[in-house]
Every structure is written in C-alpha cells, then in structure tokens.
Design a protein that fits this description.
disordered C terminus; alpha/beta; 343 residues; 3 domains
C-alpha cells in the first residue's frame, strides 16, 4: 500500500517488485502451511489477483490448490508471457496431488472391482480359500478339526469382471474451484484404470465434455471456466444421454446444489437414473475445506430420493467410489460430529 495521505498516479515503473520481495521473504521465515494462508489472505483481502498475471510473481508464490483455483479463474485474461509460468505452477500442484492420491485410489478401487466380480459357484482353481473359510467358520467340526464349506467364494477373474462406467459431473462455479482441481486429478487416475470407463463433464449454464483431455489433468483444468451460473438439470440431462449400461454406471455429481435451472426436472432425472439402476453419488465438495455453503432444500430432496449429499475429502473419495462400485452403503461423514457413518 502507498503511504498514508500520499497521492497515487499511473506510471511506467517495474511490476510490483515489493510484492515479489514480500512473497520471497515469507517463504524464508514461515513454514509452507502458514505461507499459503498468508498468500490466500493477501490475494483475497487486498485484491491482488491481477498481480498473478505477472510471471515474476507467479515464480515467487507457494503453489497450492487455492492458488490453482485463482489462476484458473484468471487464465482467460492472462498475457502470453504468463501462461507458460501459470501452467508450470498448476502442473506442480497436480503432480503433488497425484503422488498423494493415485496409488491409494487405484489399490482401493481395484480391490472393490475384484470383490464385485466374485461369484458363489467358482471352479476349483478360482476359489478364494481365505474368504471361503472365514465365511464358513460356523460349520467347523471340532471332532474332525475341519470346516465344511457350504458356501464357496471365488476370486473375480479378469474375464469375468464387468467394466464399470463412471461419470464425473462437476459444477465449475467459482466457489467450487478446489473441488474442480481434485476432481480433475481423480478423473485422470480413474481414466488410467482399464476396468473403468471414465467420462468427465464440467458445467455452469452450459455443458462441456472434457473426456478427451483426461490423459492430462492440467489440460482438463485449463479447459474449465470458473464462475458464472449453474444449470444442474442441463448437465444431468447430458450425462443421462450418455448412459448405456445403467446397472454398471456410477454418476458422481460434485456441486453445491445452487440450481439456476429447472429444479423439479433435476430431481426427476436423479430419480429416473436411480430407478434404472445407476449408482448416484452427490458430493457438495471434494476438498479438505469441510462442508461448504450449499442449498439445503435441494440436498434434503436428494436425500429423500436415496441420494444423500455430503462433503467429501480427497482421502475419503476412494472409499466412496469403492462403496458405489460394490453397491453397498456410502461412508457419509457426519457433519455434527467427528465421525463417519454409512447411508
């Protein structure tokens, strides 16, 4: 800020050298978590978003999910000299998220897909003896020291496993920035699994299918346009039109549910998808920020249809998807206590 009482005028001086120096100083004296909070506060409260259009400042900031959200909201206005730097910043954050989330997600979902493919009449070589013995312990005969297996459980074989279709439908309104970032990373991870067919759709009042960009989540992110209105009904109509195998399809809607479209039509589409056999998951957020502001009336209406809406952390998302794949109750975080329950 200028000195108190001092006058301000335009000029041709260098671009914010004091801000660049400040960003460098706080990285020297404070831990990363504190730096990220200070940067976010400076950008939000002091109106410094436009300064992020300058490459020397982008090189000085500590990159995190919130910074990526800010950059995505500005990328249409970025000069050519800043775009490469911005992509490098976004790629760094995406790489860190993939490193943190990818391995666990693949392991969790591979196990869920394997379990969903198990059968009760396996051939001898396909018997899962560990699960079979545990399932038949009640039939243990002490005098013979053996278990009589009344029910056999078989391993899911690759040839037997049914491929699942996953549709990620993401609200790209400005308040959903962190969710968009995490969802794009998960979309890329899911798309890399052969046993899943993944589609990624983003929407505001229009709908954009970014499935062809899923091999690079950075391209997905720069294909979004944060801000604007919200038409959930139109987005779900598009997703519904792409469903060919309802019983083997999971639709994940990530939105704060502030609908600008036709509310009753939106609910009818959800009901129709569930009636056809689609596993429908509604996430109010996919971030570490906790429960966001959301439309409670629409959330209650979805819950009445058997589709509870809840905020989900990135660490819990693999468990939510595994439950959807296996068609078992979802692990829904309890917003009133530090616990998790299923619905």
């Amino acid at each position: 800020r200028g000195r108190a009482g001092g006058s301000r005028a335009g000029g041709l001086g260098g671009s914010a050298p004091q801000m660049a120096r400040w960003l460098g100083d706080i990285r020297t004296y404070f831990p990363t978590s504190v730096v990220q909070v200070m940067q976010r506060d400076a950008i939000d409260r002091l109106g410094l978003s436009q300064l992020l259009l300058e490459p020397e400042l982008l090189e000085a900031v500590e990159a995190d999910v919130h910074l990526v959200g800010t950059l995505l909201s500005l990328h249409k206005a970025m000069p050519e000299t800043t775009r490469n730097t911005a992509r490098a910043v976004v790629r760094k954050v995406v790489a860190e998220l993939e490193k943190r989330l990818a391995t666990r997600t693949r392991a969790t979902l591979t196990g869920a897909l394997d379990r969903s493919a198990r059968n009760s009449r396996p051939r001898h070589r396909d018997i899962d003896w560990d699960r079979t013995i545990r399932a038949n312990l009640k039939n243990y005969l002490p005098e013979h020291r053996t278990v009589v297996p009344e029910r056999l459980i078989g391993h899911g074989r690759a040839a037997q496993a049914v491929k699942k279709d996953v549709v990620l439908c993401i609200d790209q309104s400005g308040s959903m920035a962190a969710s968009v970032v995490h969802a794009s990373v998960f979309g890329a991870v899911l798309a890399s699994m052969r046993s899943l067919s993944t589609r990624l759709v983003v929407f505001d009042t229009s709908v954009v299918d970014l499935t062809d960009e899923l091999d690079d989540p950075v391209d997905v992110l720069f294909g979004t346009q944060l801000g604007g209105g919200t038409d959930i009904n139109r987005a779900l109509a598009y997703c519904q039109s792409r469903i060919t195998r309802p019983a083997d399809t999971i639709v994940v809607l990530i939105s704060d549910l502030y609908e600008g479209g036709i509310r009753d039509e939106m609910l009818k589409r959800v009901a129709a998808m569930k009636a056809s056999g689609v596993q429908f998951v509604a996430l109010l957020a996919l971030s570490d920020e906790g429960t966001p502001g959301y439309d409670r009336e629409h959330a209650a209406a979805l819950a009445a249809l058997g589709a509870p809406a809840f905020a989900c952390t990135p660490d819990l998302f693999p468990e939510v998807m595994a439950a959807a794949i296996e068609k078992r109750p979802l692990p829904v975080p309890d917003t009133d206590a530090d616990t998790t329950r299923v619905r």
